[in-house]
Amino acid sequence: MQEQNALTDLHVGPEKPDAAVVRDALGVGVAVGLSGFAFGVTSAGSGLTLLQTCVLSLLVFTGASQFALVGAIAAGGSPFTAAAGAFFLGVRNAFYGLRLSQVLRLTRAVRPFAAQWVIDETTVVALAQPTRRTARIGFVVTGLSLYVLWNLTTLLGALGAEAIGDTAAWGLDAAGPAVFLALLAPMLKTGTERAVAGLAVVLGLGLLPVLPAGVPVLVAALAAPVVLWAQGRRAGGEAW
């Protein structure tokens, strides 16, 4: 009975071999970790030093926020707006942590270290597992492989950018946004998610010529409450 209660927060399904969990987790870690090269190139191209670029990946370790930060800086935005945009993108990880704390049930001593790895990829892999044991394996393997590879490719990307000079002349400044869109697109499965993404794009691109760099990203965050409000109004109208 205690074991059954311990798994109520998980989707209980057929047992999954540990080797299969490790294989899937490594696949995600390697596939996403390689995009750290794009961040290294983009960061160096925006004017950050090699040390600053590497410290960002070591301490921040959330790709969307890192790309938003260096993108805003590259566009001439102030450090405040750049940091604010990165912060709001990273807030979602706090909500991931609330769910993962229920699923993983880690000890208090381990939680501060595990928090560094609470990102999109580790959350998806952990929550896809049928038991707490496999969720923990998926979380650790994904987090470890992604953290190591992301930081290694960040270093290689920054060194490569310094070697080739102007990244904009090679079109490498577009690598970061392209990688981010490639990761985001498959996640837009419902009409609501696609509506939020579409409105965010319209707001971000539409306001780009008239607002300081970094601010359009913050305004685009209003897409989610606007879409949810509109859906609520429509649902209320249909109820009547």
UniProtKB/TrEMBL annotation:
The chain crosses the membrane at residues 20-41, 137-161, 167-185, 197-230. It comes from the Bacteria. Signal peptide: none annotated. InterPro entries: Brnchd-chn_aa_trnsp_permease. GO terms for cellular component: plasma membrane. Its main location: membrane. It is found in: Cell membrane. Keywords: Cell membrane, Membrane, Transmembrane, Transmembrane helix, Transport. One of its GO terms (biological process) is L-valine transmembrane transport. Belongs to the AzlC family. This is AzlC family ABC transporter permease. It is a multi-pass membrane protein. It holds the Pfam family AzlC. The keyword Cell membrane applies.
